[in-house]
Write a structure and sequence with these properties.
The complex is a heterotrimer of chains A (693), B (280) and C (157). By secondary structure, chain A is an alpha+beta fold. Chain A contains 17 helices and 28 strands. In chain A, the strands form seven sheets. Chain A has a seven-stranded mixed β-sheet with strand order 3-5-1-12-9-10-11, with helices on both faces. In chain A, strands 7-15-14-13-8-28 form a six-stranded mixed β-sheet. A four-stranded mixed β-sheet of chain A has the order 16-23-24-27, sandwiched between helices. Classes of the chains: A alpha+beta (693), B alpha+beta (280), C alpha+beta (157). Bound molecules: flavin-adenine dinucleotide and FE2/S2 (inorganic) cluster (2 copies).
């Protein structure tokens, strides 16, 4: 049999190249109306009065009074209303939809809406903690006594997903049903949220995925909000309605990567960190949503790729009167790995040791305890991977040479990503189900996983055809439609291939045994590996079933006059278990790293009094082809027993190491310590003028 | 709905300008974005508009002994491809926007827009470019530095049209443009700098310095440049710190979503310093 | 309102409409050509790119008035050509397509580039693609695709 990693053409190339692929904005339904959102113009306060202009025939306002079920969007922490009942907690919070057939008229109506508020002083400081976590490992704080303390603080700011296709849905009535077609990552998140908001029977809500023009976490939970709003409208008006964000609206109001602050205290003896204290804060924005999970994933990653025996770790999600923050590829890990990688670098420098040597001395090995007293059960190939990256990048020589020269630098980051949901999340919350259906000579994959560009359609068809030893053309995988596919869980957390693929592989194996039957269905459910035991409250146990690992080396040059950073080249080595399709994995590797690098040096987003300042693609700077550099990538096979063919998670891993590696490279180039990202030319100037080496 | 006029020749256009109250749209890359309303809705112009991009007479680039003439409807890409246009301007245009925008945007539009961040304005100020204006009443020429009177303010009557951008032919020993944007292409400048000089037997015959995005319009100080003319290059190089001090007071940038004033000022002056130090 | 005549994917069209509409809306709404996408609506991302007289333009930043007497080719029209086949195969081979939202624009940019410069070097390719934002790929595989297309399409451009 051919090695599964050998690449095949992606199944959706033809449609996507020719422009035939249909994204949500490409659908036009007979008699379709449009929805514009009425938004608050203040960051905090109370609506005293709303005056709508007189609505022409065929125009509607939909607000909280129309929500038949619970006026709360179903996410982990339920604090986001579908429409506000009057309390305003951030600028541009949605108040109502104005709906009708003519955009021009809607635009005029929108301008005439008059709202009187009772304004309150908005809170932008990180003082209102809504989620607080704390855990220890080993002796905790007690182990710190008598050891040398080294402490530093790190900061990260917003990152915007900047998918090129903005958020959007079309909703329409079908008999007793409300149906939503949208640009989404998680069909069942939307469905369950709508069921709750409408107070409807499950059967009466249907969610279909349109081709998705990029998501990166941004279409994980946010679509549940606008999906609910639109569903309420469809239920009331009983006509097809389109709700698609303009770019500026999307950038101003949708969830972003949480800004973070990390305070580290390392307790050192004989050039080793024996104890680590971390105090972490993230800005949840006005609604907490899934920020608690982001925080917990960040905290779990607090030791980076290293082993530290004694930990005292705490963190808070703060509520502020700013746009709610949420899921973004990496989910807390990019913030924490930036901080921890820089911390190890800085502690080593302070101790006068070579940072790489220092890191190697702390590197976690197979059977070591994780930060939560779980176990790294599988082989950890990091030493070999580091050797490989050093060889290919000539890291050691460059590192030495650039120590002496100016404005050139290399940086190396070591990192992992916990694959899948934390702990028993899969078993307790998600309970993924998949179906494979054989119908004569065709096999249908029935799962809720979304292809948002990461190639799920191709890799799953390939996986099934490989196991069944049939032509890939005979395996069908349509965009998920909740009327036809079971809930295999959301397309998040690098779980799709490892978890859903694993179940699909089991189903396919069973199907193979019965393949001479003409038509039948195989249904399978997630089974948790027995070893997983995790207590979410105490952060004790195996936080993840498996870990993917990575090493990035980044070489930069900083312009001596303008302090602009140009990235010369990157070298990466990843252990993702086993690639189901090498070219697809390479695409994930490049794309994730590009986002990670840009997070580290390019992408600036700030708010002023709760207003996002970079509100369009002109001002929010993502890389162009000119900004990116050649990327050399190597994959190490390290099969994971429960993943299909040994596959672990890929999607998020490649984003995590970019920012610390680029920050360290810049640090070497400018001979100044870097404590926050993005490392912009403005920040570099500040460091050169006032920073310490 | 606003009324749109689409003249096919210059006379027709001038007549419209004289008879009606209209805004001019050339490539529209500024006008469309500034007046954008919503997907699937016409551009939200606040007055009637006159589209000039179909006027063939204004698409020519030619020269005589002393000047290069660029028709006001020439696309940036066409200007970049012309052999007549000075390298300094071409190098600048290559750093503006992207191929797609350069295929429709015009030089006259960049002037008409009169943004402090308009990139082409920096070399055009440096080159002493002139603007030819025309109305039904006649034609006139003004120096670009007089034509632009402030942020988004130009000296143009309602019946007038920019018909040409006129660039004196000057030879320099070296000319240089540096755009500092937030990324390497397809971006609005944080600041920009242009410098040029001509040496004869080590004597500075001509030297010109211009800064973009650090004041309401391009900063160019002929009075300061004149102080350097006639000196040897080494004398000028020795004066570098003094020269930087002269310019300091004219660099008055602002904070915005793209950068801050400290950076803009400091880097502008660094680029000046480096330009002077590298006179060869 | 005004009559605007132009050539669209090889056919002469005449519309009686508001010339201040964006070309992008006319293509998508009047002709149901949904290959050009709206990514930003402000000329920045290139998802809406089409060919105007063989050169790439961003249809969200072109008023219909400026299309008068011009020839417009969208990805739908271009996809009927041999050049498209070569470019598409190269994108597939290199792995240059992920979510696909930028892809029609990228292909238009590739055509516009190769039409002017059939043998671009890497830097010229980057310039050629510099107005087309892609959030998925990090560009390398797209740059690779353009190189492959230039080689495989030897003689076509
Ligand atoms: C994505 C993008 C990137 C950009 N990048 C850059 C950049 O890097 N650097 C930069 O400087 N600019 C940039 N711009 C701005 C813009 O492209 C330029 O200013 C361009 O030169 C404007 O030309 P236009 O023909 O499109 O102008 P239009 O939008 O047609 O007009 C601009 C202004 O000039 C007036 N005008 C135009 N022609 C005439 C005339 N003949 N007579 C009198 N008035 C006239 C108009 O009334 C209007 O006020 C960018 C724009 C976009 C959309
Ligand atoms: S939509 Fe036209 S350039 Fe982005
Ligand atoms: S493939 Fe998704 S934006 Fe390019």
């Amino acid at each position: 049999m051919k090695d599964i990693s050998i690449s095949i053409n992606k199944v959706d190339n033809e449609d996507k190249c020719s422009g035939k692929a249909k994204y949500v904005a490409d659908y036009k339904l007979e008699g379709m109306l449009y929805a514009f959102t009425v938004r608050s113009q203040i960051a905090k306060g109370e609506i005293l009065k709303i005056e709508y202009p007189e609505l022409p025939n065929g125009y509607y306002v939909v607000d909280y009074k129309d929500v038949p079920g619970k006026n709360i969007v179903k996410v982990i922490y339920e604090d986001m209303p579908v429409f506000t009942t009057g309390k305003i907690t951030y600028l541009y919070e949605p108040i109502s939809l104005i709906i009708g057939p003519e955009k021009q008229v809607l635009n005029d109506l929108l301008k005439q809406v008059k709202i009187t508020y009772k304004e309150e002083e908005p809170v932008f400081e990180w003082t209102d903690s809504v989620v607080h976590y704390h855990f220890d490992k080993g002796l905790g704080e007690k182990a710190f006594q008598g050891l040398e303390k080294v402490e530093y603080d790190y900061k990260t700011s917003y990152q915007e997903q900047a998918y090129i296709e903005t958020q959007g849905f079309i909703g329409y009535p079908e008999k007793d049903k409300v149906t939503l077609l949208g640009s989404i990552q998680c069909p069942y998140y939307v469905k369950n949220a709508v069921v709750q908001a409408l107070g409807e029977k499950e059967d009466n809500v249907r969610v279909i995925q349109a081709t998705v023009g990029g998501a990166f976490g941004g279409k994980e939970e946010y679509p549940s909000l606008i999906g609910c709003q639109l569903a309420v409208a469809v239920k009331k008006i009983k006509k097809p309605i389109q709700l698609i964000f303009e770019r500026e609206e999307d950038m101003l109001v949708t969830t972003k990567r949480h800004p973070s602050r990390v305070h580290f205290e390392g307790y050192v003896l004989d050039n080793k960190i024996h104890g680590l204290k971390a105090v972490v804060g993230i800005d949840g924005g006005a609604n907490i949503g899934l920020s608690g999970v982001v925080l917990s994933r960040a905290l779990i990653a607090c030791t980076g790729a290293y082993k530290i025996d004694n930990l005292d770790i705490s963190g808070d999600v703060f509520r502020t009167n700013t746009v709610p923050n949420g899921a973004f590829r990496g989910f807390g890990a990019p913030q924490m790995f930036f901080a921890v990688e820089m911390f190890f670098e800085h502690v080593a420098k302070k101790l006068g040791i070579d940072p790489l040597e220092f890191k190697l001395n702390h590197l976690a090995k197979q059977n070591d305890f994780t930060s939560t007293m779980g176990i790294f059960r599988d082989p950890v190939l990091m030493p070999e991977m580091i050797t490989k990256v050093i060889e290919t990048s000539d890291y050691l020589n460059k590192r030495k040479e650039y120590e002496k020269s100016e404005f050139k630098g290399v940086g190396m980051s070591l990192f992992f990503h916990g694959c899948g949901f934390t702990g028993s999340g899969e078993q307790n919350h998600i309970k993924a189900k998949v179906k494979l259906k054989k119908d004569k000579d065709k096999v249908y994959i029935l799962i809720a996983a979304v292809d948002m560009g990461q190639g799920v359609k191709t890799s799953f068809r390939k996986l099934v055809s490989h196991i069944l030893e049939i032509d890939i053309e005979r395996v069908i995988f349509d965009n998920p439609d909740t009327d036809f596919v079971p809930d295999s869980g959301p397309t998040v957390a690098s779980r799709t291939m490892m978890i859903v693929g694993g179940i699909v592989a089991r189903a396919a194996k069973e199907m193979k045994d019965r393949f001479d039957e003409e038509s039948f269905v195989v249904e399978k459910q997630y089974v948790q590996p027995e070893y997983i035991k995790y207590d979410e409250a105490t952060f004790k146990g195996d936080a993840y079933p498996a870990y993917s690992w990575g090493v990035n080396v980044v070489e930069v040059e900083v312009d001596k006059d303008t302090y602009q950073v140009s990235i010369k080249k990157t070298w990466s080595v990843y252990d993702i278990g086993k690639a189901i399709d090498e070219r697809i994995v390479m695409g994930q590797a490049d794309g994730g790293l590009a986002q990670g690098l840009a997070y580290g040096y390019l992408e600036v987003m700030e708010h002023k009094q709760g207003k996002i300042m970079q509100k369009n693609m002109t001002d929010y700077i993502i890389p162009t082809a000119m900004d990116m550099c050649p990327m050399e990538t190597y994959l190490f096979d390290n099969p994971y027993a429960f993943g299909p063919y040994g596959a672990k998670g890929v999607g998020e891993l490649s984003l995590i190491g970019g920012a610390p590696a680029v920050a360290m490279a810049i640090e070497q180039a400018i001979k100044r310590r870097v404590f926050k990202i993005p490392v912009t030319p403005e920040y570099i100037m500040e460091l050169i003028n006032n920073g310490e080496n | 709905m606003v009324t749109s006029y689409i003249p096919l020749n210059l006379d027709e256009c001038l007549k419209i300008l004289s008879d009606k109250q209209v805004r001019i749209v050339a490539g529209g890359t500024d006008m469309l974005i500034q007046n954008r309303s919503h997907t699937s809705m016409p551009i939200g112009f606040k007055s009637d508009v006159c589209y000039i991009s179909n006027i063939e007479e204004l698409k020519k680039i030619y020269e005589d002994e002393t000047f290069v003439y660029i028709g006001s409807v020439c696309s940036l890409e066409a200007i970049m491809e012309s052999e007549l246009v000075p390298e300094l301007l071409k190098n600048t245009i290559l750093e503006m926007a992207s191929p797609a925008i350069r295929h429709t945007a015009t030089l006259a539009g960049n002037i008409g827009n009169a943004s402090p961040a308009g990139d082409s304005l920096v070399p055009l100020y440096l080159l002493d470019a002139l603007v030819e204006k025309r109305s039904i009443k006649g034609v006139s020429k003004v120096a670009l530095s007089d034509f632009i009177t402030g942020v988004r303010k130009i000296d143009l009557e309602k019946d007038e049209l920019i018909t040409k951008v006129i660039i004196p032919k000057i030879s320099f020993t070296k000319s240089y443009f540096k755009k500092v944007g937030p990324r390497l292409s397809d971006a609005i400048s944080k600041l920009s700098f242009a410098g040029a000089y001509k040496l004869e037997n080590d004597l500075v015959k001509d030297i010109r310095i211009a800064f973009g995005s650090v004041n309401v319009t391009v900063v160019r100080r002929r009075d300061l440049e004149e102080r350097l003319i006639g000196k040897t290059k080494d004398e000028v190089k020795k004066m570098v710190s003094e020269i930087v001090d002269w310019y300091e007071e004219f660099i008055k940038p602002i904070d915005d979503q793209r950068s801050n004033k400290e950076y803009r000022k400091s880097i502008s002056l660094k680029l000046l310093r480096s330009f002077i130090e590298n006179i060869e | 309102m005004a009559k605007i005549k132009f050539k669209l994917n090889g056919e002469i069209k005449e519309l009686d409409t508001d010339p201040s509409r964006r070309l992008l809306d006319v293509l998508r709404d009047d002709f149901n050509l949904t290959g050009p996408k709206e990514g930003c609506g402000e000329g920045e991302c290139g998802a809406c790119a089409v060919l105007m007289n063989k050169e790439i333009v961003n249809s969200c930043s072109v008023p219909l008035a400026n299309v008068l007497n011009k020839e417009i080719i969208t990805i739908e029209g271009f996809s009927k050509t041999k050049r498209y086949q070569v470019i598409k195969d190269s994108f597939a081979k290199a792995g240059g397509v992920q979510c696909g939202f930028c892809t029609p624009g990228m292909i238009i940019a590739t055509e516009s580039l190769l039409n002017k410069n059939p043998h671009p070097n890497e830097f010229e390719i980057k310039i050629g693609l510099s107005g087309n934002l892609c959030r998925c790929t990090g560009y390398n595989l797209i740059i690779e695709a353009v190189k492959l297309a230039a080689e495989a399409g030897e003689g076509l451009w």
